Amino acid sequence: MDKKEELDLVRKKIEVELDCPLKKSATNLVFAKGNCDAKVFIIGEAPGKNEDLQGVPFVGKAGQNLNEYLKIAGLDLDVVYIANILKYRPPQNRNPTNEEIAKHTPYLIEQIKIVKPKILITLGNFSSKFVLGKFSVEGMDSVEGITKIHGKRHEVDFFGQKIIVYPIYHPAAVIYNRKLVEQIKQDFVKLSDILKCE
After folding, report:
1. What is each CA distance from 88 to 60, 145, 191, 195, in whole angstroms?
2. Which CATH class is domain 3-197?
3. What are phi and psi of 183, to 5 degrees?
4. Alpha carbon of 168 to those of 17, 92, 109, 153, 159: distances in Å?
5. Is beta strand 40-44 parallel, antiparallel or unpaired with respect to 33-34?
6. Where do the structural domains in the chain lie, given as residue ranges?
7. Is 74 helix (H, G, I), strand (E, B) or coil?
8. What is Dmax (Cα atoms) for the chain?
9. How far apart are CA 113 and CA 118, in angstroms?
10. Facing residues of 120 across strands?
11. Which of 63, 70, 86, 196 lies 20 to 30 Å (CA to CA) from residue 44?
């Protein structure tokens, strides 16, 4: 079985097994997109309105921003894999709850195990705290917020494998705060240097 087939099985497991109210309120499951052989795995927060309608992550304005920032680091959608913490959209794009994160992230962990990336780019607070809290909801409170940890290289143990973690502001953040644009661009320039060493 190849990676694509394994990932398809995870998708089917979510459709069959996941017991979460978000499933009933959402339009579509938003599983992932990109290259399943990628060495860079990008983790977002949750689907927004456009993602929910299309069933694909990062297709709205934040997705357009992300595409532009990836170019700064010499990346594009053909060489990265992208998934969210939550697979279903929270109503009105509210923040995910700890219970929702706990229910959805076992599937995210399965995705990471299958793709086997070298680098995880975590976008925003929730994905960064979950990963740097060592893939647990309980560990999230021990991790500082994105304003403190963005643009810094971290390393975590992922089931016996060392993975580089690189937190960056979520590309949706610049929609509401244009002052972050230059900071995000600088973080992607630094990411380019990290990629050259891997």
Report:
1. 15, 24, 29, 31
2. alpha beta
3. -65, -45
4. 31, 23, 20, 10, 23
5. unpaired
6. 3-197
7. coil
8. 46
9. 11
10. 41, 165
11. 196
Look up residue 12 and give its two tokens: 């089917």
Q: What is the model's pTM?
A: 0.96
Structure tokens at 97: 């709850």
Q: Which tokens hold the place of 105? A: 């992230």
pLDDT in tens, the chain (198 residues): 899 999 999 999 999 999 999 999 999 999 999 999 999 999 999 999 999 999 999 998 889 999 999 999 999 888 999 999 999 999 988 999 999 999 999 999 999 999 999 999 999 999 999 999 999 999 999 999 999 999 999 999 999 999 999 999 999 888 889 899 999 999 999 999 999 887
Amino acid (1-letter code) at residue 1: M
Asked if 143 contacts 149 with a C-beta cutoff of 8 angstroms, the reply is: yes
Closest Cα partner for 103 from 9, 27, 44, 19? 19
